[in-house]
Amino acid sequence: MLFYTENVLKFAFSMETTDIDVEFPISDNKLRFAILGVPFDGTASYKPGARFGPRSVREASYNFERYNLILDKNISAEVYDFGDLEVVHGNFKKTCSKLKTTISEILAMQMVPLTIGGDHSISYCVLKAMDESHGFEINDISIIHFDAHMDMRDLYIGEKYSHATVMHRISDLNPKEIIQIGIRSASMDEARIARKQNIKTFKSCDVDENLEEIIELIEKIPGPIYLSFDIDVLDPAYAPSVGTPSSCGITPKQVEKLIYSFKGKEIVGFDMVEVSSTQIGDITSLNAAKIIYDILSLQ
Ligand SMILES: [Mn+2]
Predict the structure, then answer these.
(1) What is the CATH number of the domain that holds 134?
(2) Of 97, 150, 122, 58, which is closest to residue 274 (Cα–Cα)?
(3) Cα(147) to centroid of ligand 1, in Å?
(4) Which helix (H) or strand (E) holds 60?
(5) I want to staple 54 with a disulfide (CB 3.0 to 4.6 A). Which of 116, 125, 170, 178 is the partner?
(6) 3-state secondary structure 5-22
(7) CA distances from 163 to 2, 147, 244 (A)
């Protein structure tokens, strides 16, 4: 690339994959992130369009400064943008198979996968790939799930793999724990399943009333953490372009405080899902890009 040019088809501050010049296996302990877009919205049930998420989030990321004023530091994390997965539209099984292969390749390169969806069904494939990879014990991983919805159905419209069943499938992998934040929508059956499986659920009203308690809980997590972030956890005032909007959500400032509470934690994977905007400058993409920017700023 020329000196004064930038590639808006990759996330801001990230490098091209052709820039990777480390020897594998890597001997240093430096944290490296791999961004992967997964433009798949084959399980969307209300408003499709999450296939446009990776592109719109990347575009929105060019709003930000390398210097994070709030944290008083430049982004120094080593980040590579691998582009988008070649998905099979309308076919979850084939897309999931390709995604698992690609995530396994990223893990073999000792990089932390940072996936941009796509509808929420894809998160299962990322965690399944981690479960099947050497060096990962899914039973040691705490899953932190930001969402308006519990996503704990066993089946949705008869389907086992769906944006609405994804946390049930992830729970089937037996992670160490699941902590849900910002929830305000579930069926009675989902709430019962979550209670039975000892899932900690903080509703959106709990974020309003007990934010410090949730932050303390996060700060006390001793081991590896996987973050699954459905952008619809934000109120539709801040994130209208989502697959399944739900009112009375949390705010970007509350999310910022929660994300900063992960400072110093071992984040082994992150996904940002359900952004379905198609417009440049869209508020949903801007907020999604800001959350990824904050995650990168923590390192
Ligand atoms: Mn959701």
Answers:
(1) 3.40.800.10
(2) 122
(3) 5
(4) helix 53-60
(5) 116
(6) CCCCCCCCCCEEHHHCCC
(7) 41, 11, 10
Asked if residue 16 is part of any domain, the answer here is no
Residues paired with residue 272 on neighbouring β-strands, in sequence order: 116, 229
Distance (Å) from CA 50 to ligand 1 centroid: 12
Separation between Cα atoms, residue 108 and residue 261, nearest integer Å: 28
Q: How far is the CA of 182 from the centre of ligand 1 (A)?
A: 10
Helix axes 211-219, 252-260, angle to 10 degrees: 30
In a domain, 6, yes or no: no
Do the beta carbons of residue 51 and residue 118 sit within 8 Å?
yes
Helix (H, G, I), strand (E, B) or coil at 298: coil
Most confident of the ranges 5-9, 20-24, 135-139, 220-224 = 220-224
Distance 232 CA to ligand 1 centre (A): 5
- Measured in angstroms, how far is the CA atom of residue 238 from the centroid of ligand 1? 14
- Would you give the end-to-end CA distance of the chain in angstroms? 26
- Counted residue by residue, the chain has a size of 299
- pLDDT tens-digit series, residues 75-125: 888 999 999 999 999 999 999 999 999 999 999 999 999 999 999 999 999
CA-closest candidate to residue 242, choices 36, 43, 11, 46: 46
247 within a domain of the structure (yes/no): yes
Query: Which tens digits make up the pLDDT trace of 115-173?
Result: 999 999 999 999 999 999 988 889 999 999 999 999 999 999 899 999 999 999 999 99
- Supply 271's token pair: 């996904």
- For residue 27, the enclosing domain spans 23-298
